Structure formats: structure tokens, C-alpha cells
Amino acid sequence: MDGLQEQVAMVSGRSMVVAEDRSWRFDASSPQSMLTGGLLRGRDLVPAVRGGWAARRGLAARPTCDLGRWSDLEGRNGVEWAEARFGRGLTRRLLSPAVHGLYFQELEANSAALPGALAAIFARAGSAFTLRGGLGTLVTALAARGTLSTRSGSTASNGRVPLAAGSS
């Protein structure tokens, strides 16, 4: 993507979560801020650390782009699995709101594959990046190169992706 290297910008780890009729601010790049900010309580710390350590050892190595590779967790309820792995505090005040906010789904209605994959992403401890001008900059750059196509096989031109028949 010619010219996009200059558009890459690191995103702050500062975040906010809303759960249990409250909101908490924390910095994902500073895990202790979850405790000092009140998101996690002292009693939540041991299960959260234990689960995070186990996630780094086991879950982080799994591919997150293919949920089929998580089929061993399909038969387990997402909340039950997460609470057993990370404790009730982290599950109720961080993982469940993250699933709701990212996927517009309830953790209770999902198998353990979803929170497992999400925990694997968090365990990789990477930095978040974006593009100045928004992620639409990427679409525009791909369209300009003629390398963007939709599932219908249409190719984008002038930064516009044609809708498939029947789409609105």
C-alpha cells in the first residue's frame, strides 16, 4: 500500500468499560490500572492473573481468524468457561462487556470458543494501530490499486464498492 506507511498511528491503550451500572477507566497497556481504577477488586486479582497466564501459555498460540480451530470449546457455555478460567470479576466487568461491545452478543448465549478467542487476542499483548484519516483510507488505497473485491466478485473503483444484488 504505497503511501500508507506514513498514515499509521499508534492508538492509546486508554479505555473505558461499562458494566453493572457503573463505568471504569483503565489503560490496557498498564494492567495494574484495572485494579487501581476499581475495575477489578482484590479478590478478582488471583483468578484474573492465573487465567491471563494460562491464556498466554495456551490460547495465544491458536489462530483467532478461524473459529473452527476452537471446536474443543464449542460444547461449553461462554460465561461458565470464562468464570472458571478468569474468575467472576473479570468475566462480568471486562470480558462480557467486551463481547457485547465488539460482537453485539451476550456472552451467556455463546460457546466458550468466542471468549477463548478474545482472550487469546488480549494475551498476545500487541499494540493497537489505526490509520490517520480512518480505516476508510485503507479501502480507498486498495480500490486505487484495483485489488479490492467484494464477495460477489465485483471490483471497487473510485473508492466505492458496488453492493451485491438485493443489498441496500
What's the arrangement of secondary structure elements?
Blueprint: E1 8-10, E2 14-19, E3 22-27, H1 32-36, H2 42-57, H3 78-86, H4 88-103, H5 113-123, E4 129-131, H6 136-145
Antiparallel strand pairs: 1-4, 2-3
Please, how many helices? 6
pLDDT under 50 segments (min length 5)? none
Order of adjacent strands in the largest pleated sheet: 1-4
Element order: H for helix, E for strand: EEEHHHHHEH
Content of β-strand? 5-15%
Residue share in helix: 25-40%
Biggest sheet: strands, sense, closure? 2 strands, antiparallel
Number of strands: 4
User: What shape does the CA trace take?
Assistant: globular
Span from first to last CA? 29 Å
By secondary-structure content and strand pairing, the structural class works out as alpha+beta
**Mean pLDDT across all residues, rounded?**
81
Round the Cα radius of gyration to an integer and report it.
19 Å
Sum this structure up briefly.
This protein is of the alpha+beta class. The chain is 40% helix and 11% strand. Helix 2 crosses helix 5, helix 3 packs across helix 4 and helix 3 runs parallel beside helix 5.
3D structure, described in words:
With 168 residues, the protein is an alpha+beta fold. The chain is 40% helix and 11% strand. The protein is built from 6 helices and 4 strands. It has helices spanning 32-36, 42-57, 78-86, 88-103, 113-123, 136-145; strands at residues 8-10, 14-19, 22-27, 129-131. It has a two-stranded antiparallel sheet. α2 (42-57) crosses α5 (113-123) and α3 (78-86) packs parallel to α5 (113-123). It is globular, with a radius of gyration of 19 Å. It starts with 7 loop residues before the first strand and ends in a 23-residue tail after the last helix. 20% of the residues are buried. The mean pLDDT is 81.
